[in-house]
Amino acid sequence: MEFVTGICEGREMGLDILTDPAMLEKEAVTTGMIHSIRDMGEIEFVILRRREGLIQTVLEKNTSDGSLKELHEGQAVRVEGIVKAEERAPHGVELKLTGAEILSRPEEPLPVAIDKWKLSTSLEANLNHRAITLRNVRERAKFKIQEGICRGFREFMTSQGFTEIHTPKLGAKSAEGGANLFKLQYFHRPAVLAQSPQFYKQMMVGVFDRVFETGPVFRAEKHNTKRHLNEYTSLDFEMAYIDSFMDICRMETSMLQYVMKLLETEYKNELELLHVKLPNTEKIPFVRFDEAKRLVSEKYHRQIRTPHDLEPEEEALIGEYFKSEYDADFVFVTHYPSKKRPFYAMDDPADPEYTLSFDLLFGGLEITTGGQRIHDYRTLLKKIEERGMEEEGMEDYLDCFKYGMPPHGGLGIGLERLTMKLIGEDNVREACLFPRDMTRLKP
């Protein structure tokens, strides 16, 4: 009887081994996709693409090995050769080829020149051929950085005693209210796609005290802007026994510090490839909503047109103001008006027209919404009644408050927006693997 006992070491070598000085002048075997071939006369540079990056190999044209003469762009190959030092090559080494095994052959030439330093395609063409254009090293680097954000978020939350949860994306009732819902039939019953995991996060606070989740959320908003998607990834957490919503702000600040440090140390290659300068997260200023509007109005001579919400232009100007005055990349805007926050947001006891809530702006763009929640059952029922809402469909959510809940609060972070601002793009679709908007439902 034979058994599977775990991962076996293969003979293929990754970059960590190939770049080891001890490997110089020794035989090596590696695998990859042929990213490009550059004809230099008597030799050809065959560039391989692996998960860790590009590897330069050198092919002498007078070789007698027939397999080496059949190498073409787009093939998956296993190659062998001698490791040589070459400071001009990626990672300072190259492989002088002595043999190759072709593992797969493309049926057609690539529709996009992915070996270029920067894709010379429109965003539309980029997205239409997404699975191919992401093979470009700069395009791929964006999502390695996004991986680092998610990884840092998970690691930090776990280190702070948060339990990771996974909540349903199909439900009977919206957590946020409003008309921007994707509605569908669920076995002859009406259902909606989740706008957020809010109800479930709060319910689980009564179980685990601290919870977090990364997952998709859906907004059926009929917009076509550079900052909106109809499906995006939300990084959420909820925590109990808070003294104020500032505890949530402090937790997010510490999380961002952890994420930036992780990116700096373990995603250095991607940061350098995209010329990313990490933002300052040592300390983040905070300002009341009404004060922020006043500051912007006076500084930039802009009339306040919407007293109960921030317009995109105002967010940008708030970011500009705090960058110029305090060299701050982030700013917490607190105490949003109650009428613009969901029913579960706790009103400020000192002024019930405002809530104990906040947005975090990064470079003048809202990337986070959070705050303290109502945890008292009677207060929650009163807020629902004042808003003319129905309790139908929320019975399970309300039950957890009926039987007692601790003071708590939390937030949701838009992953794609955070990535977009971090890598310096101006369209959120650049920071989404397969964007979903009003016109795009594929690939």
Q: What do the pLDDT scores average to?
A: 93
Taking the sheet with the most strands, its summary is:
8 strands, mixed
* Percentage of β-strand residues: 25-35%
Name the poorly predicted regions: none
Structural class based on helices, strands and sheet pairing: alpha+beta
Can you count the helices? 12
Helix fraction, binned, reads 25-40%
Which descriptors would you attach to this protein?
about 450 residues; alpha+beta; five-stranded mixed β-barrel
What does this structure look like?
The protein has helices at residues 15-18, 123-128, 130-133, 137-159, 198-208, 246-266, 268-273, 289-299, 312-326, 377-386, 395-402, 415-423, and strands at residues 27-39, 43-50, 53-60, 76-85, 93-104, 163-164, 170-171, 183-186, 189-193, 210-218, 231-240, 286-288, 330-334, 347-348, 351-355, 357-362, 365-372, 408-414. It is of the alpha+beta class and 443 residues long. A hairpin with a 2-residue loop joins strand 2 and strand 3 (53-60). The radius of gyration is 26 Å and the shape is elongated. 35% of the residues are buried.
Short description:
This protein is α+β, with helices and mostly antiparallel strands and 443 residues long. Helix content is 29%, strand content 27%.
Helix and strand arrangement:
Elements: H1 15-18, E1 27-39, E2 43-50, E3 53-60, E4 76-85, E5 93-104, H2 123-128, H3 130-133, H4 137-159, E6 163-164, E7 170-171, E8 183-186, E9 189-193, H5 198-208, E10 210-218, E11 231-240, H6 246-266, H7 268-273, E12 286-288, H8 289-299, H9 312-326, E13 330-334, E14 347-348, E15 351-355, E16 357-362, E17 365-372, H10 377-386, H11 395-402, E18 408-414, H12 415-423
Parallel strand pairs: 3-5, 6-10, 12-13
Antiparallel strand pairs: 1-2, 1-4, 2-3, 4-5, 7-9, 8-9, 10-11, 11-18, 13-16, 14-15, 16-17, 17-18
